[in-house]
Amino acid sequence: MRVLIAEDDVGIRELLHDLIERQGNSPFVARDGEEAWALFRDQGAEVIISDWLMPRLEGPELCRRVRDSDAPYAYFILLTALGDQQHHLTGRKSGADDYLAKPFDMEDLAARMVTAERVITMHRRREALLRLARHVATATEPAALFSTLLDEALQLNRAEAGVVTQAGVDGSSSIVAQQLVGLNEDAARELMDGLQTVAAAAASQRRPATESGSIAVALIHEGQLLGTLALGTRDSRRVFTREEAESLETMGTLCAAGLAALERARLEGVLLAARTAQHELNNRLGVVLGYAEMLAEYPGLPEPMAELVSEIVSGAKDLAETVDQLRRVTRIRETPRPSLTGSTLDLHESVA
Q1: Which alpha helices (H) appear in the chain, and where do they start and end?
Q2: What's the CATH number where 219 sits?
Q3: Residue 16 C-beta-side C-alpha neighbours within 13 Å
Q4: Do 250 and 308 have their domain in common?
Q5: CA 206 to CA 219: how far, in whole Å?
Q6: Total structural domains in the chain?
Q7: Of 224, 256, 288, at which residue does a domain stop?
Q8: Which residues on adjacent β-strands are paired with residue 99?
Q9: Cis, bond preceding 338 (omega within 30 deg of 0)
Q10: Helix-helix angle 303-329:242-296, to 10 degrees
């Protein structure tokens, strides 16, 4: 985690830096509250450890500014020797998550960093889901939806490779989005092979599947498999937790619902076009068939012409039957009208 340390005492600042770094995090420091605020605006942070009393800007006010910003959630720990209840209440009201009392030791700091990581992870998952939900609500193309799903999943889980597949109606699958982060050709090929394997397992089981350093979830909507999402890292020791699997499954379900909505919208557009075409064809065929039948009854029509007119009548009726089938497929509900495949309009009567 990126940890911003705001402390005006150089000794405590350096101690915190060393302890945070030893725990496997990435610390950077500020000498007072104003400098910390400027660093946070420019670079962001996942955790902020801030002294209460500092020049220019004190810890509680720094916390209030962080909470009022549009930046992703940062876990805020106030470092203070002021341990009375009134100060605790003031700190909580400013938005602080926790306290670290002076003097502190490694165990106190480690315990708070574990809590910070859990809280930050929950916030990041919620933020990722909100961004994905907004995209689902406005998406017009499946490709953009798949790409957003993969972006959010990679960032949230700090993976080096990811792939999204889409299921075909014949049971096949095709890659519709993929990303590789900082991998050479050999490493990329090996990792992608592993992702294909774990993705196939997730599709078959219709639940999350894991291999060493990789995980995949099925994209399912109303019981139908629409595809898979798979992530992986080169670190074979990486174990994806149940919470991570559930989070990815939620993202996948949201994406699948969006994909299904896009497909419904596409089909509705096709049906609308079919209905419009059926209406126009029906009108034109009525005229063609009526005139053709009137011409077929014309006395003294030469035989070659009569045969041609007969073919026109037969072809028009066949086409009219196709139009009627199109109407039934699109389930058009219209007011009763004469069927073009039955008796037609008698134009002799119409013009009499």
Answers
A1: 10-22, 33-43, 59-68, 85-94, 106-138, 142-157, 185-205, 242-296, 303-329, 347-351
A2: 3.30.450.40
A3: 32
A4: no
A5: 8
A6: 3
A7: 256
A8: 78
A9: no
A10: 150
Q: Tokens 């909100």 sit at which residue?
A: 130
Find residue 75's DSSP bridge partners.
47
Can you name the residues that pair with 165 across neighbouring β-strands?
A: 175, 228
The amino acid present at 82, given as its one-letter code, is L
Residue 92 lies in a domain: yes
Residue 271's Cβ-side half-sphere holds a number of Cα atoms within 13 Å equal to 12
In angstroms and rounded to an integer, the radius of gyration of the C-alpha atoms of the chain is 34
Judge whether residue 136 has pLDDT over 90. Answer: no
User: Does 135 fall in a domain?
Assistant: no
- pLDDT, tens digit, for every residue of 246-305? 889 988 888 888 888 777 766 665 556 666 666 666 776 777 777 777 777 777 777 777
- Cβ of 203: how many Cβ atoms within 10 Å? 22
Q: 57: domain range?
A: 2-123
Nearest by Cα to 215 from 146, 134, 129, 156: 156
Residue 130 resides in a domain: no
Whether residue 216 lies inside any domain: the answer is yes
| 210: three-class secondary structure by DSSP | strand
Three-state SS at 282: helix
